[in-house]
Amino acid sequence: MKREIKRGAFLCLQGEKADCFFILLKGKLEVKCVPNSKNLVTFVDAFAAKTVNFIEQPGLLFGEIATILDSTRQASLLAIEDTEVMVIPLRDHNSYKTALAIDPRFGLNLGNSIALQVQGMKKVLQKLLEADSEMAADITDLKETFQKLIDFTNRIPRFGNRMLWHKDISMSLKNEPFLTRKTISKLPASFYPPGCKKYTRFFEKFKLSSSTYYPDTVLFRQGEFDDFVYVLLSGHLEVRVNGVVVDDIKDSGTLIGEDELFLNIGAGSNAVKQPADVICTTISDAIKITTDEFKKIFSGSNEFSYEFIRVMANRLVARNNFLFETEKRIVAGFNEKIYDAFQAFEKVKKITEKSTKEDPELKIALNLANQGVARASEKMTVWHNWFIANDIFVEGSSSKPMVAVKR
After folding, report:
1. Which of the two residues, 280 and 356, has the higher pLDDT score?
2. Cβ neighbours of 59 (radius 10 Å)
3. Beta strands of 120-165 (E only): which ranges?
4. What does the pLDDT look like over 86-142, one tens digit per residue?
5. Strands 210-213 and 284-290
6. Which terminal residue of the chain, N or C, has fewer Cβ atoms less than 10 Å from its own Cβ?
7. Cα 336 from Cα 330, distance rounded (Å)
8. Whole-number Å distance between alpha carbons of 35 and 288
9. Residue 40 burial (CB < 10 Å; 0-12/13-18/19+)?
């Protein structure tokens, strides 16, 4: 069913019950979100909400996650020009089966849509790691700058006793990343739910038998193109990126490699490579399923494909929530350290301001500290803008204000 939305009208409101998803035929939609709102928003709030994205590519499928999970809309969609969409109802298992009967590729297309979003989130996660490391390096620079200032002032008798407490400020500028690689590596582990376990019978129905793999067997090799997935039945696997262990998989029923499989169906030259090595650390039993076999199972069993898509959708939502909380933690941690440094600098400046005219070296030390805080504050602004540009919300990220320091 086609639906036309005039410019300035909403296709849906955040908090509405989702019973259909959409395909954009023409026009442009603005995605607006009120962070942390669990209720149906008003039109006034929807108009005033933050813009987090735009939908403008014809043929783009959207709104499917909330629909699949029988949830509410997570954002409002405002037409910023006359827009036309195809409305696809998906109220329950029966409507899903109906859609599959009309087009057996329907489930595969949904899987591809979710996998694309997961791929985007993986890129954001990598960027978060980079942001975290850079922020830690900035804190190191700031700490060294302040330590020089403290050492200098402590050598001056009239300042020494009054400046000792600033060592506490300097020591508080610890340079540990706020999001370590070990922490972020735990992300995938919670997204291999046992939801597929009961569906191993579908694999048996299609005469797919398991194989035994011995320690050090490589199931997936980073950087290679593969056209299969595995279902782990027993054993223990490690996921390694550039030789570093970032995850372990041991839950029976876990499907491994499905995101890349969905992305590569019909991708041709745009196929994606495996992002990591997956290696057996113990004797493990698993079912290997080729792309053709998976497509046959997926298209041949409405029940399996419906539940499997729900598992993928749940993983996507969990990833999104993780990103939201992680970004808040990074921004809050870095912002707080900059704020503390700024406060310390202002106090040092106040104590020593009368002596800077008499002591050029002290003036130089103060200028270096000021520049260090300014650089860190500018970097915070850069990352803050990057988070916004990549649709990662920053609302409520810190109880302390961001600091703008003039050089």
Report:
1. 280
2. 8
3. none
4. 888 876 666 766 776 677 677 788 888 888 877 777 777 777 777 777 777 777 777
5. antiparallel
6. N
7. 10
8. 42
9. middle
Q: What pTM was estimated for this model as a whole?
A: 0.67
Strands 228-234 and 255-256: antiparallel
**Is the distance from CB of 291 to CB of 264 less than 8 angstroms?**
yes
3-state secondary structure of 313: helix
User: Residue type at 57?
Assistant: Q
The whole-angstrom separation of Cα 169 and Cα 17 is 50
**Closest Cα to residue 203, out of 229, 239, 236?**
229
Alpha-carbon span 45 to 13, nearest angstrom: 10
Nearest CA-CA partner of 27 in 9, 39, 42, 15 = 9
Q: Torsions phi, psi of 317, nearest 5?
A: -65, -40
Q: What's at 151, amino acid-wise?
A: D
Half-sphere exposure of 27 (CA within 13 A, CB side): 25
How far apart, in Å, are the Cα atoms of 116 and each of 60, 112, 375?
12, 6, 36
The DSSP symbol for 314 reads H
- CA–CA dist 335, 396 (Å, integer): 12
Domain ranges of the chain: 2-91, 183-297
Residue 36 identity (one-letter amino acid): N
Structure tokens that stand for 384 in this block: 């803050």
Residue 277: which H helix or E strand, with range? strand 277-280
Half-sphere exposure (Cβ direction) of 106: Cα atoms closer than 13 Å: 22
What does the alpha-carbon distance between residue 195 and residue 213 come to, in Å, rounded to a whole number?
A: 23
Mean pLDDT of the residues in the chain = 74
Pick the CATH number of 183-297 from 3.30.470.20, 2.30.130.40, 3.40.50.970, 2.60.120.10: 2.60.120.10
Q: Which amino acid is at 247?
A: D
Contact, 349 vs 387, CB < 8 A? no
Q: CATH fold of 2-91, please? A: Jelly Rolls (2.60.120)
Label the pairing between strands 210-213 and 218-220. Answer: unpaired
Asked whether the CA dihedral 384, 385, 388, 392 is positive or negative, the reply is negative
Which residue type, as a one-letter code, is found at position 162?
R
Whole-number Å distance between alpha carbons of 2 and 372: 57
> pLDDT by residue (tens digit) across 39-90?
899 988 999 888 878 888 888 888 888 877 778 898 899 999 999 998 888 7
Q: Is the pLDDT of residue 366 over 90?
A: no
